[in-house]
């Protein structure tokens, strides 16, 4: 049960991070600052989930983490 709850949390934060990072905004710096805490929470929780859960579910968390990381990195490039 706890594995499922953790996976749902990682999935929701990952999709939210990836979706919000692709938003169009007149102020990308403000979007970056607003999204950074959610991205940090997602990356930490996905990493902990991938390390602590020995089942194949961890690859779902790793995939969502990779997707969110790519989207957030692209937002970082728009800010720079």
Average pLDDT, rounded to a whole number, is 88
The coarse silhouette is: elongated
Number of helices: 3
Protein structure class: mainly alpha
Distance between termini?
A: 42 Å
Order of secondary-structure elements: HHH
Number of domains: 1
Strand content: under 5%
Tally of strands: 0
Parts with pLDDT < 50 across at least 5 consecutive residues: none
- Specify the biggest β-sheet: none
* Helix content range: over 70%
Radius of gyration: 13 Å
What would a concise description of this structure say?
By secondary structure, this protein is mostly helical.
Key words describing this protein structure:
3 helices, 80 residues, mainly alpha, 84% helix, single chain, 0% strand
Structure, described:
With about 80 residues, the protein is mainly α. The chain has one domain. The protein has 3 helices and no strands. The model has no long low-confidence stretch (mean pLDDT about 90).
What is the topology?
Blueprint lengths: L1 H20 L6 H25 L5 H22 L1
